[in-house]
Design the sequence.
């Protein structure tokens, strides 16, 4: 042991000539004489890493007691000399500075986070440490920490960085990924842990009591439940009527209440550095004369009205809360940028890519042309205050191929080049096992830190390091196959797809074969690699199962067996929800998949054609049933959460445990609405069963199987409704049949 230590410290002994007063043969971590909490934490982290790498028990000492070669952490005198020499006048946000000096190496940076990141950059880029996930890392054997040939100065273009994945909720891993923003929404499925101050802390929104989401906040500050009755004029005038959909942004009384409410929130939560002042997640902007006049002033767009309001609120809160930034959306009806107005210095605008195609980079897909115009406009309207919001997964099915491998890095660069100062990448927040979920998170984090990094090299590095060298080749083949499958610009891959019509059987078979080779290669390299590769195979298996009839892959019983096996594996991997869209649980998916493939033995028509057998159940009159003898046509107007009662459409009597087959099609182009079983006022995801992604946009008839829960009361109803109607929506129902299946279904897993 002692001999090993002596060998390990040989370079230190050799370097003693440089700092002759040192007697002991030991490297040191040198801190400033009065270190900050962050410097102490960074030094402790470095010490721990050196121990793991076999670099010995390196002591943390004050700079004056350091031996060469020393690792100078934070604002040491040696760092000051080196930064002076390098001409560093002032630190940019999160900036790191690493430099070899005759006495060792300087690891310094912005006192907030920069020092933490400098140590991490040293460990990652110069020592070869890798933090693959929150629980899986790699520390190489490194008897003597490198001190020569190090020179790096870097500040990330995105000052605010967040990737929205389950694993990134872990505070320490977030620090490893150099992420510094923490959003909360209602669908996280796990606790968000704040980064402690000594590790740099995080930017965050206020925590609203009883509400997990920090977004879409108009009604948080001016709730319609409290104010609509007495002040309908505070809410948007829509088609001549005041509706609790959005706020009337020129109503001064409303603004006063809004500001007072916002100030109360900020005063009660001093840790909040950002607060959303943003539209509800639905249409319904105010069309009153005053609001229309403001819109006209700024290009005739609702975004002008929004920025005008947010700027005013920002001006009013600034004196009391100078360090709080207001955060608003360019989203849906506000995505088109205004003209003749720029956002205030204490406001950022989150421009969302919703509705774009994701198979190609935003700048390459012809379908994204208007988005590029919007980006350009917002870069001008929000200079230095633009915040990107990109969607980086398949919200219909996390464990399904979502080949945005080219788009993901290119879009990060696009936003950086447009001058965006923040980025939020919305990924697989509900699920720890999406397609290459760890790789995606790691890759995105590295690109947000440095958008110019070589994404292909990073990808290959992760594949080799995390799955093993043998498997990496085949996994890369899988990724390339999928990427090639969506290369045609005529393909428009949205963020909601479950069947991937662009993936042919031939590609699917090749992908499955590549995955099988990857698993075999990983098994040869060790059980850890094998476990990780097997988890990725769930994706190709899902692809095959979801397209079973299309690919003509074999018998129904074979499919059922594999579906059960697949769901079992998914559950073992810790998955609760398979998608964000509706939080589909594994068990529900299993039932749906199995029933979709089973022969129907008996059918009993509950409803077919004749509209007189359906009745709207809709207090606001937003639903019309106008069908023919062959099918019922149900038309629904946009409504929303703020408009209770708008969502119910029609009802059919059912009994507990009934299985119903619904033949229907959507005839409106927008909306993604499935059938829901609803037994009371509240819809519970667990009581929701449906098959298929949603109604296809090609207007084909589809079959959907719905099961009534066992607790449905006598005289219960199947209600066909929109969970959160954003747009006008029309479906046609041909028939609803009560069905019995030919064999028992193994629904227990
Ligand atoms: Zn108005």
Sequence:
């Amino acid at each position: 042991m002692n001999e090993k230590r002596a060998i390990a410290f040989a370079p230190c002994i050799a370097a003693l000539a440089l700092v002759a007063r040192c007697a002991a043969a030991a490297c040191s971590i040198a801190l400033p004489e009065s270190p900050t909490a962050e410097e102490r934490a960074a030094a402790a982290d470095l010490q721990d890493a050196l121990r793991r790498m076999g670099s010995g028990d390196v002591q943390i000492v004050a700079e004056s007691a350091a031996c060469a070669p020393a690792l100078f952490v934070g604002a040491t005198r040696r760092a000051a000399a080196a930064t002076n020499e390098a001409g560093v006048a002032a630190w940019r946000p999160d900036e790191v500075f690493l430099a070899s000096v005759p006495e060792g190496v300087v690891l310094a940076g912005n006192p907030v986070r920069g020092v933490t990141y400098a140590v991490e950059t040293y460990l990652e880029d110069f020592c070869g440490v890798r933090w693959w996930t929150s629980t899986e890392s790699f520390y190489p054997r490194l008897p003597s920490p490198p001190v020569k040939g190090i020179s790096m100065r870097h500040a990330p273009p995105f000052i605010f960085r967040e990737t929205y994945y389950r694993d990134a909720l872990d505070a320490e891993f977030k620090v490893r990924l150099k992420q510094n923003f923490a959003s909360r929404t209602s669908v996280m499925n796990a606790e968000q842990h704040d980064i402690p101050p000594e590790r740099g802390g995080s930017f965050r929104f206020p925590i609203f009591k009883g509400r997990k989401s920090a977004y879409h906040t108009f009604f948080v500050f001016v709730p319609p439940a409290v104010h609509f009755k007495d002040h309908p004029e505070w809410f948007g005038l829509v088609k001549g009527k005041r509706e609790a959909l959005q706020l009337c942004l020129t109503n001064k009384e409303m603004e006063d209440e809004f500001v007072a409410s916002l100030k109360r929130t900020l005063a009660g939560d001093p840790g909040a550095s950002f607060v959303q002042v943003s539209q509800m997640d639905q249409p319904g902007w105010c069309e009153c004369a005053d609001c229309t006049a403001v819109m006209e002033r700024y290009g005739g767009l609702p975004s002008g009205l929004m920025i005008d309001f947010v700027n005013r609120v920002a001006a009013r809160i600034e004196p009391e809360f100078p360090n709080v930034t207001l955060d608003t959306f360019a989203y849906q009806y506000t995505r088109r940028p205004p003209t003749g107005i720029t956002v205030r210095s204490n406001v950022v605008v989150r421009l969302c890519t919703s509705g774009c195609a994701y198979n190609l980079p935003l700048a390459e897909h012809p379908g994204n042309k208007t988005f590029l115009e919007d980006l350009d406009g917002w870069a001008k309207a929000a200079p230095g205050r633009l915040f990107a919001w990109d969607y980086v997964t398949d919200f219909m099915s996390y464990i399904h191929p979502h080949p945005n491998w080219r788009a993901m890095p290119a879009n990060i660069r696009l936003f950086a080049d447009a001058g965006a100062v923040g980025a939020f990448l919305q990924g697989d927040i509900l699920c720890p096992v999406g397609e290459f979920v760890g790789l995606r998170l790691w890759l995105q984090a590295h690109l947000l830190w440095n958008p110019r990094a070589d994404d292909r090299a990073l990808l290959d590095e992760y594949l080799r390091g995390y799955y093993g060298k043998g498997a990496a080749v085949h996994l890369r083949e899988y990724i390339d196959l999928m990427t090639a499958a969506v290369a045609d610009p005529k393909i428009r891959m949205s963020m909601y797809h479950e069947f991937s019509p662009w993936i042919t059987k031939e590609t699917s078979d090749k992908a499955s074969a590549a995955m099988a080779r990857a698993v075999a290669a990983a098994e040869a390299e060790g059980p850890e690699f094998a476990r990780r590769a097997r988890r990725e195979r769930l994706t190709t298996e899902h692809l095959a199962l979801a397209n079973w009839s299309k690919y003509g892959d074999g018998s129904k019983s074979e499919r059922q067996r594999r579906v059960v096996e697949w769901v079992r594996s998914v559950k073992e991997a810790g998955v609760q929800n398979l998608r964000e869209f509706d939080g589909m649980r594994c068990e529900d998916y299993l039932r749906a998949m199995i029933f979709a493939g089973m022969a129907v033995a008996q059918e009993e028509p509950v409803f077919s054609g004749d509209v007189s057998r359906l009745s709207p159940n809709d207090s606001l009159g937003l639903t019309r049933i106008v069908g023919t003898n062959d099918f019922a046509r149900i038309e629904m107007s946009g409504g929303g959460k703020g408009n209770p009662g708008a969502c119910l459409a029609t009802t059919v009597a059912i009994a507990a445990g009934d299985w119903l087959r619904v033949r229907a099609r959507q005839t409106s182009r927008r909306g993604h609405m499935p059938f829901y079983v609803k037994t009371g006022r509240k819809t519970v995801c667990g009581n929701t069963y449906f098959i298929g992604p949603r109604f296809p946009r090609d207007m084909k008839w589809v079959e959907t199987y719905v099961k009534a829960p066992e607790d449905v009361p006598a005289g219960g109803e199947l209600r066909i409704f929109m969970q959160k109607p954003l747009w006008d929506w029309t479906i046609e129902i041909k028939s609803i049949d009560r069905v019995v299946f030919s064999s028992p279904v193994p629904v227990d897993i």
